Amino acid sequence: MPAVNQPPDPFAGLDGWARSVERRETRALSSGRRRRRWGRRLIVLVVIGAAVGISWGARGDLTQWRPDAAAYPTQSPPAGAQATTTPAGRAKRPFEGTPAESYAEGERGIVDPPLVAVAGFSDQQVTDAIGAVRRAMVAGRLDPRMIVQRDPSAYLGLLAPRAREQIEPWFATKSAANLATRVADGSSLAQYPPRVRGTFSYLGGTTEHGVPYIELTTNYVWVYPWANDAGVFLAHDEVKWRVYDPGRVAPADRGLWVSEARSYLFGEIDCGRSDGLVGLRRAADVTGGVQPGDEKQYYDPNRSLELEQGC
Question: Where is the composition biased (Low complexity) (predicted)?
Fold first, then answer.
């Protein structure tokens, strides 16, 4: 977090989508029978703590995962102005038969919250903060440069300079999976945009040193189709972003910060990976960890991100 100023192509078939992450697929649904595809491999990623590198005394730390006591716990929406994704139209393969069939395509699933006053910020500054978070979500979860090429430069370029220095090392670890989707070599995505559903909210606050900030919370499910009708996988993340009053922080601290991030992955995924990349489930893997009929809960943005099991 910022200092206070003193004074105060293994991925064949993705080219069409790469040209436009919002491209709407117009192909009619096949009239043939389709199998209901549910992922049953669940991997839990660590929770990343807030206050990364804050210079007025706090230190960043890594919070370990705490298991749930009950099945399918939900979470309360944060306070502040909020917008929620609305259902899309008719189902499109390969999402047919999963909850994602009604989710919006790509960036259409990100709905900006309404503009409300935030103390210490102009309406334009609030609008700019919302736009910065939207661009970061697109860069992390929808841009083929990140997903296919595993190139985080566009994403990192959207952060405050000093925030960038602290987040960049995440991309050498599994921590980056809390912010971005990166597909491993040897796995291919189908030529369909990801499906997206979630909520986007924000409110104002003040640090212990009296610096105003906007805290923006995004809670989204991102569903991706594997090539060759191999099923789907999803990432469910909740990220808290902050923008500080630019007149009260150093130049290198002006812009977008990630203050907290956590997530899980679910679906036809390789549970043996520990590098933050997503690979297709290997044929030799034994399916487990989720009981039949429980799969829907992991598609729900309101589901708690604290899980009692993983693989």
Answer: 73-89
